[in-house]
Backbone:
């Protein structure tokens, strides 16, 4: 009798633990967003500044993950777009005295144009050549900015308009950028392009053999990632308030992105979220150990990778099957098996 | 579909010298040959992965050798790989969906029904939400065929679809291929498993030393002198025939 009752429950579709969580997930996420948005009301200035960093690094991590984790484009040149964002903000607000809001649009446009131009040569490369190619391009951009009179060579800019922005306002901007990046990646993965990206992630040439256009999909991914990294660069430099070629176009930015994604979980949406939290907290802690802080970060990264080779979220998913942002597709309800000729007829 | 004088070399190694074949709708053509005969190379040329040095590949009335991999898939040339290359982190349904969406250009909604029905047809509907990486060999072989079918092929190229399977499992693959054939799809099936060639094909072609040596009814080809020589060498083949005589 008990077994029968249990069977009826299943057939009746009563929500099990998974169904219950799935139903409650939007509410839980919405509540989390509200709690995070209200953080300036109850957190100290230090807490808010840590929050700003977490969301900005989350955005950088999401965009690098979109490239490396889904389309197999391991770029070591994404710092170019951070620098473009920072310098666009500096030039628009300091040199031309225009609004900060305009900086976002111009940074997006310049990042898009630059990404398009460099995509022609670097997309002719693949694998490690692509990686080195992107690095060389960003290093070349660094040298160019150091020798460009228009941006005052290596002198850099104080971004004084940033002083007028309150910390809560900056926090909300960072929150929007960080959560926006996460939402963007989620919606991309839920789209047709996302289906192609997930196939490319698992086996690139098999994906092509099923009809996925590799070049077009990867290029779209590269452009989206570059534009959003450029926009993130604007907010980053509103926080940093001083832009200089060496720092703006330094590879440290991309090293952070790699760290965040690898420890969080390559090819997962949640990976950069958890990775950014760990990275920023570790950085805050290791500031107390000048000189060996990077060694400590490296040791932490090696330890995490040894314990969880697929990153923290990869391990969590493998062990518990848990995904906060599921992109899994479900088949439409069927009417039972049909014969193959019927399927083939409309091809 | 017809292949005419297909040739390819890798450096000084001429793998295919001149291969010719014809495939009709609803026909299954088996291709056999010793290891290194160039069977997979031939499939890779047909699907656009490799560029030949010469020859023609006429599909639906036009030479498609200049078309890219994706264009050939969308024209209706589906394939499976020798070692199943499913998207391991995606479910069986999503694997099938990839084929249906990108191979046949359907919207995701329309492709969903096809992907589901294909899984029913290949006997994987009970495992449609399992990650492909967790499926056993038979299921991965089935899925490999299913994903290729989801692209909506008019010709299906199978590369050792029954390799590594037990006899009863091979029978299941044979059942799927028969359904495909009955639907009017032409099948080229490279295989080492004798049972599949004898019971699952209409004609068998022997590929050896870069050429199509013999093609005909499965039983005739399998017992031919050419097959013995290709597999055992000319000397051994002759001795075997003398012994039989």
Residues:
């Amino acid at each position: 009798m008990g077994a029968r009752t249990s069977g009826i429950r299943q057939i009746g579709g009563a929500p099990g633990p998974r169904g219950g969580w799935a139903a409650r997930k939007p509410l839980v996420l919405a509540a989390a967003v509200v709690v995070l948005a209200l953080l300036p009301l109850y957190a100290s200035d230090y807490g808010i500044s840590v929050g700003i960093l977490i969301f900005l690094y989350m955005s950088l991590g999401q965009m690098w993950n979109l490239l490396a984790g889904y389309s197999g484009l391991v770029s070591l040149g994404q710092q170019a777009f951070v620098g473009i964002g920072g310098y666009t903000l500096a030039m628009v607000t300091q040199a031309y005295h225009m609004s900060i809001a305009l900086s976002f649009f111009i940074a997006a446009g310049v990042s898009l144009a630059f990404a398009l131009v460099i995509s022609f040569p670097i997309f002719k490369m693949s694998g490690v050549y692509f990686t080195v190619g992107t690095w060389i391009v960003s290093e070349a951009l660094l040298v160019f900015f150091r020798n460009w009179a228009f941006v005052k060579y290596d002198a850099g800019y104080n971004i004084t308009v940033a002083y007028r922005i309150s910390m809560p306002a900056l926090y909300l901007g960072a929150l929007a950028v960080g959560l926006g990046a996460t939402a963007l990646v989620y919606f991309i993965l839920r789209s047709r392009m996302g289906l192609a990206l997930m196939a490319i992630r698992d086996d690139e040439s098999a994906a092509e053999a099923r009809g996925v256009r590799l070049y077009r999909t990867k290029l779209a991914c590269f452009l989206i990632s570059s534009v959003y990294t450029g926009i993130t660069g604007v907010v980053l430099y509103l926080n940093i308030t001083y832009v200089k070629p060496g720092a703006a176009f330094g590879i440290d930015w991309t090293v952070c992105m790699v760290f965040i994604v690898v420890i969080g979980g390559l090819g997962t949406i949640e990976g950069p979220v958890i990775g950014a939290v760990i990275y920023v907290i570790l950085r805050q802690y290791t500031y107390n150990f000048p000189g060996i802080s990077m060694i400590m970060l490296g040791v932490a990264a090696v330890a995490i990778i040894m314990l969880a080779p697929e990153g923290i979220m990869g391990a969590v998913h493998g062990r518990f099957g848990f995904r906060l942002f599921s992109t899994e597709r479900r088949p439409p309800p069927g009417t039972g098996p049909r014969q193959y000729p019927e399927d083939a007829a409309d091809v | 579909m017809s292949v005419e004088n297909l040739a390819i070399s890798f450096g000084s190694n001429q793998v295919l010298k001149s291969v010719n074949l014809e495939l009709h709708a609803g026909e299954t053509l088996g291709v056999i040959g010793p290891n290194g005969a160039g069977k997979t190379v031939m499939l890779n040329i047909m699907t656009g992965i490799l560029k030949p040095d010469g020859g023609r590949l006429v599909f639906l009335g036009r030479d498609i050798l200049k078309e890219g991999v994706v264009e050939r898939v969308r024209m209706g040339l589906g394939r499976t790989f020798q070692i199943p290359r499913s998207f391991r982190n995606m479910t069986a349904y999503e694997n099938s969906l990839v084929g249906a969406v990108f191979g046949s250009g359907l919207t995701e909604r329309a492709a969903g029904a096809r992907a589901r029905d294909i899984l029913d047809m290949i006997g994987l509907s009970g495992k449609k939400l399992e990650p492909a990486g967790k499926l056993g060999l038979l299921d991965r072989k089935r899925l490999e065929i299913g994903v290729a079918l989801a692209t909506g092929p008019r010709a299906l190229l199978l590369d050792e679809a029954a390799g590594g399977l037990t006899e009863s499992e091979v029978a299941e693959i044979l059942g799927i291929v028969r359904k495909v054939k009955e639907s009017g799809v032409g099948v080229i099936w490279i295989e080492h498993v004798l049972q599949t060639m004898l019971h699952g094909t209409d004609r068998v072609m022997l590929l050896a030393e870069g050429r199509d040596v013999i093609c005909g009814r499965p039983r005739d080809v399998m017992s031919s002198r050419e097959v013995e020589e290709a597999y055992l060498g000319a000397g051994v083949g002759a001795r075997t025939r003398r012994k039989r005589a």
